[in-house]
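pinging the channel bc i need a second pair of eyes. not urgent but kinda urgent?? the chain im working w is below, pasted from the shared doc
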Amino acid sequence: MEATSESGNLAGVRHIILVLSGKGGVGKSTISTELTLALRHMGKKVGILDVDLCGPSIPRMLRAQGRAVHQCDSGWVPVFVDQEQSVSLMSVGFLLEKPDEAVVWRGPKKNALIKQFVSDVAWGQLDYLVVDTPPGTSDEHMAALDALRPYSPMGAVVVTTPQAVSVGDVRRELTFCRKTGLRVIGIVENMSGFVCPYCTECTNIFSRGGGEELAKHAGVPFLGSVPLDPELTRCLEEGRDFIQEFPQSPAFLALCAIAQRIVEETPAQLS
């Protein structure tokens, strides 16, 4: 997205990436979080907009639970998750009185909040804004896409797991992207094998290659496979920076390679 004077609070955001999936449980928030951290370690300034209203898990993954959202003249100030203020986050999780409170809202109220998140968060200068969306192709997707469309998103990163059931659901997500005119940056196959914590050998528990095969048939780029890694799970549970702490992990190498591919795609789309 080229910044323009008419872009309001998104004027300083250079590129917007939506993270999508056709079903829940594929690790979409994990990919959003680790992609953000990988981009941060590449020297980029990154924001995360968590519009998964019913399952806002990213504040925990970034150890930002319980933080307060403040107001400024131009709207909400996002929560900075590091001292350098290179990663900023906005999530409905910050607006709940209790962490275990459920968001029991009908569609119009959810859609209004998503539009408010897009227009009323003072992001400042960002290289990338990563938007973590709910699973499926629901009203929330349409609300997020409609609100972001005027700012020309760079495109979507679509997450799947290797199994045929997941791949089938993600195929419908690709159809959603085509129908709405949203460019697919590429597909990520998550949970692609299990990394042994003792010998780092990778075993294909769920099968392997479904995401790559889907990308080939759909004619979209395949960004890479991310294996299961107990250390990655532990970092997400404890809000630690996996990218910084485990540079020898196969999951680290996969995530950094995916981030690098996205950065390489950026100038070709929007220089």
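so The first helix runs from residue 28 to 41. and The chain has a mean pLDDT of 86. — does that match what u expected or am i reading it wrong
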